[in-house]
Amino acid sequence: MNDEQAKAVQEVAKTSGKLVEATEKVGGFISKIIGGASTQVGGILEDWAKFYRYKNLLRIADKVEAIHAQRKIEGKTIPLPPRTAIPMLESASLEDDEILQKVWAQLIANSTDPNFKESFHPGYIEIIRQMSPNEAIILDAFLKIKSFPILFKNHISEKHRSEERFGWLYSEELELSYEGVYVSYLGFCQELPLKQPSEVRVYLDNLLRLRIVELGHDFTGEHRGGFFGLASSEAKSTSLSIPARDEYLRMTVFGKGFTEACIKGNNSNASRLV
After folding, report:
1. Mean pLDDT throughout 56-69?
2. Average pLDDT over the chain, rounded to whole?
3. Is 164 left (phi over 0), alpha (psi -120 to 50) or beta?
4. Chain centroid to CA 166: how far?
């Protein structure tokens, strides 16, 4: 071996040593991030990721098949175009939470159901990716409220005095504003089986950020006294006619489509989130 060959061997050895050192460092970093589970499939991240995604898709597939069986549409489903099917399955395969897997299963089942009449929007995929399980529980609960959204109608500066319960809102004196509506929904959400009920403000703010729900007011019509909610008993009437505004927390048009496609199921236990 001449001098040049010897130097080449030394350089390869140095490079190999650095590569081994870098691989060990990356492996240690991965173990900190995802735990020791990666070693169960040989310690190779790529293999572990494939196994992880495969396992998640199997669980989601079982849920989708259960929904299709309940609807009696096995063998009648329609395929999705690759431009939506690929990102949908890639995103769903990363989810290991039981509740969000049900959300993905609902979306896949509905979008492949020939009888499902609502439109599918590609944005639904990104919405689920940015949701927590707790936010899915909140939306599921909102769907069960027959009078959703709560509608407040009152004079701009008028205060309402009440000794009666209205839904989950109870107040002896409340200045009706959309902050009051927001607070009333916070109280409602804190009664749900959330993993971190103390973070309700974060969950509602995220749903507002995603434009699934909206909080605000409209100036509409005239007010003749009283306080009422949508589908509630008629407000007391007076002869006074003053400008009024409706104050609400309600589903957006996009939010209604999203909940129909991803949250709202049928009456089977397989389709309920909680």
Report:
1. 94
2. 74
3. beta
4. 27
